[in-house]
Amino acid sequence: MAGWSPEQDRTFTRPYRPQTNGKAERMVRTLLGEWAYARPFRDTAERISLLPVFLDFYNRAPPHVSPMRGVTAI
User: Fold this and answer.
1) Residue 51 dihedral angles phi and psi, to the nearest 5°
2) With contact defined as beta carbons under 8 Å apart, do 58 and 34 qualify?
């Protein structure tokens, strides 16, 4: 993924914590529905190359609002 290096810290969801696991599951669902299968791609390389474009759009488009916390971003 663009901008990531092995030296950076990673964050993980805490075990047995549905609040944070639900956020991760929602992120996966959003990626599948709005990026991975939103349109046909020629091959996997094309799909992967457009991930940074999608993430930039998703984070800069008009805000996504969650009912409890307000604006959310990836």
Assistant:
1) -60, -50
2) yes
